[in-house]
Amino acid sequence: MPTIRKASLDDSPRIADIYNCYFESTTITFEEEMVSAGDMAQRIAVTDHTRPWFVLEDDGLILGYAYAARWKDRSAYRFARETAIYLAPDNFGEGLDKQLYEHLIKALRETEVHTLIAGIALPNEASIALHEKLGFVKAGEFVEVGKKFDNFLNVGYWQLVL
């Protein structure tokens, strides 16, 4: 039975492996270089109660992770968080993404965070469906703001007011 726990720096290699699956062959992430375990550890290291990282694991194997990060640096944005979730590619269709994301949202509801924002590279029907199932609504779309695999890409933003 999968369990959810706070991510630790020791999880960085597996989290980087999962993330890099998306870097190499999809437009889900706009990274243009692979992320090392050290890079991922630096990202995890800024965790606090309003910027948590969680992993979902089964028998010691991390199947996915979700986190919240600052939306923007300016002070007035301090109540907004950008969220993201990644599952290892062979773990779709089991509801694990919803379970993990609900855990993240619940944790953030217990803080001063007021709004969650999810940027989704388009098209991505599965991610849109997940976010809308969890109550996120589309707040806007930027046209051709990223370029990957020689294509300009739109990014939609979904928001959940807690």
Query: Sheet bearing the most strands, described?
Result: 7 strands, mixed
Regions with pLDDT < 50 over 5+ consecutive residues?
none
Q: CATH fold name, please? A: Aminopeptidase
Question: Can you tell me the number of structural domains?
Answer: 1
Short note summarizing the structure:
With 162 residues, the protein is of the alpha+beta class. The chain has four helices and seven strands.
Can you give a write-up of this model?
This protein has helices at 12-25, 37-44, 96-109, 125-133; strands at residues 3-6, 53-58, 61-70, 80-87, 115-122, 137-148, 151-161. It is an alpha+beta fold and 162 residues long. The longest helix is centred in the N-terminal third of the chain and has 14 residues, at 12-25. It is globular and about 40 Å long.
SSE map:
Blueprint: E1 3-6, H1 12-25, H2 37-44, E2 53-58, E3 61-70, E4 80-87, H3 96-109, E5 115-122, H4 125-133, E6 137-148, E7 151-161
Parallel strand pairs: 4-5
Antiparallel strand pairs: 1-2, 2-3, 3-4, 5-7, 6-7
Helix pairs in contact: 1-2
Features:
single chain, 28% helix, 162 residues, seven-stranded mixed beta sheet, globular, 7 strands, Aminopeptidase, alpha+beta
